[in-house]
Write a structure and sequence with these properties.
mainly alpha; TIM Barrel; four-stranded parallel β-sheet
Amino acid sequence: MQRVNELVRSRQKNAIFWSDIALLHPEVIKSMPKELIAASWEYVPHTDADYYNHWIKPFQDAGMRVIVCPWVGNTNLLVPDCEEAAQNIEGFVGAGKKAAVLGMNNTVWNDDGQTLFGPNCWGIVYGAAVGWENGPTPVSEFNAKYDWAFYRNTDHRFVDAMMKLSHTNEILRGRGIGQYYFENYGGTDDEVFWRNLFSPAGHNDALKALPVTAEVRRTAEDAYETFAESAYLAQRNADVLEDLKLAALRVDALAMRYEYLREMSDLYANALALAKTDRGGATGELVEIGVTFDPVGRLDDLRDYTTRLREIYKARWLDENLPKWLPNVLQLFDQQSLQWHEKMGQVDELLREFESGKPLPPPESLGLLPPGPAEGK
């Protein structure tokens, strides 16, 4: 650290360093060069704002300047968690103001290589307001101004839709979906989005989420409708609405998969029940699950939704990024489309065997849910 500091100082600059490693070894902080600037980050929304002094005071006590670094709540999420971000930004920046820190850096994390920048704009603008305004910046007051300030829209429809869509993180996290990094973090996690629906982990997610999937889908569909049908009201930054439309579609697609897994499992249970007494009826239930020769089933819908999302995602990526990394994300859509297509082929083969007189195998052979008690119990 001393050598780096000397190199930077030789060019009449000051080095800024991330504080987390130093905080793990507080005994070294006082011996660090005073010219260093600590970029101190903390992303958990603590209810006691004074608690954020833990990330400020050790460096100030050592004579260093500090930049507080909250977070827009977007890491690995299909849509940012604005509620968690707001609490974190307001608390950490408020503590920084009291401590007269050098400034703030509102951090955005798109380093998973697939989340887009546009949906982060609410958190970025809120961070700017909290940083610039002298007193508190209540979210309700900020939201009353946001549509006009950001979109030049005269009502609140866009921010209302954004906040409701963002709340799906809380809804899903409340069911234990996508909770990986921090205690209050998770929900619309992209790892969950790519997870194999027919795997044990996919089943586990579905069984947890099913009690709230209808609510999540209604929220996502209402948000999409607002972003799509009212886009003409946005006199500037309308491109962000395109990113939010994609976020709403992906949240809807995630909840739809869980609903469809339950429906496909129920259809297969019906086919098993009809297999001996109504073979034609059993065949109809299998076709409703999805086969390659008759595109009316649930798997057909899942495949078509995935290919639609792929093309929208490609367009949105290219609107804000260079193309080099894009194939690495598009292959995830392709793999998921192939997953639906291969499952359709599996149903095709099962149907041929059934029509030749073989009995239907148990639902586990298709990766479906077995009959059991209602979800959410």
